[in-house]
Amino acid sequence: MRTQVAIVGGGPAGLMLGRLLDLRGIESVILEARDREYVQQRVRAGVLEQATMDLMDEVGLGERMHAEGLVHEGVELRFDGEGHRIALSDLTGGRAITIYGQQEVVKDLIEARIGSKLPLHFEVSDVKVDPEQGTVTYTHQGDQHRLEADLIAGCDGFHGVCRPTIQDVLTVYEREYPFGWMGILAECAPSSHELIYAHHERGFALASMRSHAITRMYLQCAPDAEPLPDEEIWDELDLRFGMEVNRGPIFEKGVTPMRSFVVEPMQHGKLYLAGDAAHIVPPTGAKGLNTAMADVALLASSFGNEAALQAYTQRALERVWRVQHFSYWMTSMLHRMSDDPFETQIQRSQLRYTVSSQAQATALAENYVGLPFITA
Ligand code: FAD
Ligand code: DHB
Known about the structure:
Strand content: 25-35%
Keywords: FAD, Flavoprotein
Protein name: 4-hydroxybenzoate 3-monooxygenase
CATH topology of the domain at 2-72 and 97-174 and 260-338: FAD/NAD(P)-binding domain
Helix content: 25-40%
Radius of gyration: 21 Å
Pfam families: FAD_binding_3 (PF01494)
Domain FAD-binding: 2-326
Shape: globular
Bound molecules: flavin-adenine dinucleotide, 3,4-dihydroxybenzoic acid
GO molecular function, one term: FAD binding
């Protein structure tokens, strides 16, 4: 079978790319290893940058996001027992973030794809890509298939098959952090109407939400930690936020390790990588999903333009490295990095400066609401 773009991976990057291409009249086939239920239930990110919101509107899928998402115009940094608000919108000419779960974005994109009767195959296996020939072979419902394409989009996440196919030509830039995040979802009202990023001697904590009735919280932990019993999690959150947080039944618990990772180039032959397949950030600052969206906005607009495709890596990486620095900076300012008291003093100075200098607060705000997406 022939198509213009073979998209490997039906996560946010692959699904959004399919939608953008469709709106430009370009054919694609999306291949996803998991089943629909699994992809729609996978709990991950929750913060949409301004440009991701704009992209959802641009592709005609912003309606539920506007109805159910929570727009935030500020965020709190908490340290030494005190909270300090960073006025995101005031500092960025009115830009904001929206709390809308990644799986909601994925649901909206899948529904639109299926509604448009365009090919999206779940539960494919044995996916193999040939970047030189532009072919993808895979098994679906027991049958083997071969897809020929002008371009293969590797949107199959960090553990996918596309990046390893071209590993011989890649330079890898990587950093692992000696901690992870223990995340919970609980049935209770958020303890604060804005997100709180807390620096504490026992480790970082983050208070977020999914709705007015669902709380999302994270605790810095060992990268290989087992989730703590519920009561211990709540007690630890109280300690790190320095307040009694609202409690309720916890219905989701998990530990995520943290790493920074970038490959260069993001393309070889007819294969173009986008999203987590090409780069990972530590979650502090909520950039993973948004950066995946930035990549596919650029890739979709480059299709059919040879010079733009040639420049894809360079243009994508410019934004990727900005995001890498921001995520690294937020991570190292807010987490317990080591037992070294010198490091703690440096962090406290950096935090005090960030909340007291308009220049530094603006730098945080403009990166947090996100830089504009680049298109060809
Ligand atoms: P993915 O979402 O990983 O999608 C890739 C898709 O490809 C998946 O559906 C996968 O099933 C599929 N696939 C894999 N291999 C194959 C194959 N061989 N063939 C076909 N399909 C394949 N970011 C934040 O900003 N904030 C957070 O709080 C946050 N929390 C996270 C928690 C976890 C546990 C993880 C793993 C990530 C988290 N992220 C977070 C990062 C964010 O979720 C990702 O950056 C985002 O999902 C990237 O989208 P993507 O489409 O590039 O990759
Ligand atoms: C969430 C995740 C993040 O990584 C972050 O920085 C803020 C919020 C969340 O899942 O709500």
